[in-house]
Structure formats: structure tokens, C-alpha cells
Amino acid sequence: MTHQLMIRGVLFDMNGLFRHWRNTGAATSERLANLPEGTINRYAYQHPAYRLARVGVITDQQWADNVAARLAADHGNHVHAALAPWREDRGEPVPDMIALLDRIREQLPVGVLSNCTDALYDDLKHHGIRFDHVMPSAGIGVDKPSPHAYQLAAERMGVLPAQLAYFDDEPTFVQAAATLGMHAHLFTSADQIRDQLIAAGVPLTDGAEDVRATV
Question: Which of 34, 69, 88 finishes a domain?
Fold first, then answer.
């Protein structure tokens, strides 16, 4: 007889699901500072300092200060005054995903596991996005696709990995979550998440029976 495991929680990735980055702030700062397109991306996100911030060795502010210092050293001190748009750009929230999140939280605990700096806490407040458990990689000291990241997330949620549904838009991260026994799905849309959770027995529609099943 097959042992049926119930879904006791949902774990999400953040960027690409609940927030989109258009890089408009970085592009504005590059124009103001007369920098070639892509310069901020190279200095900020392609530099080893970003990995240190992403696993909590340094703070988001320390990393940003490091980026500014390196840019100024290579391109001139005028760069400092042009970086405000880059830092003020916190991405664009995705309304239909936020609405779905609120519905899911009425039924199950929901966490977010994101490869990002400690800025995630303030960014969620800025966009009015509410999770029950917020776990930036900087807050747990390890990033995806390490299995330790998923294991720590499950422990903090108080849910076994095999009882968690997981959604991410990065195939490698989905595969890593699946190796721990999570019900891992490659994200495509809010409708996809809703339909898969309903199929798993999560009552997200009016009048749906509260029957749990396996994803």
C-alpha cells in the first residue's frame, strides 16, 4: 500500500514569482554617471562581494558601499551621486501572485527561500508581501541549490521536506528541492500554482472539500 503524505506547507522562491526586476534603476544610474550599459551589473552582481552578501558574511549595505567604492575608484567620484536610482529600485511586485499568496496562507504556512541579501526583509515590507517564514540566503548562511538551504527552510517552517510543496522558476533549484523529497514544481504562472495545490487537496476555491493528497 502506498503511503500518502499530506501537504503541510508551501515554500516559494521570490524573484520571478512575486517580484520582477526590470533593472530600470541601474540603467538610470548608468546614464547619470555616463557609464556603459551593464557596468553596474558587472560591478555589483558579478563580483565576489555579492556572494558574501548573499550568504550573510556582509550586509546588503556593506556590499552596496563596496560596489560604490569600486565604481568610484575606476570611473570617478561623481558615480556616488548617481547611484541612488539603482539602490531605490526594489523591483516590481506581481499582484496576482500576492493575491494567491494571501489565499494560500489562510490554509497553510507559507515560506519564501530566496538567494538574496538581508534586504529581503525590508523589500517585502515595501511591497506589502507577507509570508509566514522569510528566509533569504543571507539569513540562513547558505544559498540554493545547496540541500542545506532547503533543509534549513523546512526546519524553520516546522514541516518535513516531504510535506512541502515547492515552486521556483529555476530548473536547477527545482531539481535540488526534489532530491530532498519536496513536491517541487517549475513555476509558470499563478494559475499553475493554484491548480496544482487544489489538485493536492488544498482548498483554494469556494466550497472545495478540505481533502489533503499528494502533489
Answer: 88
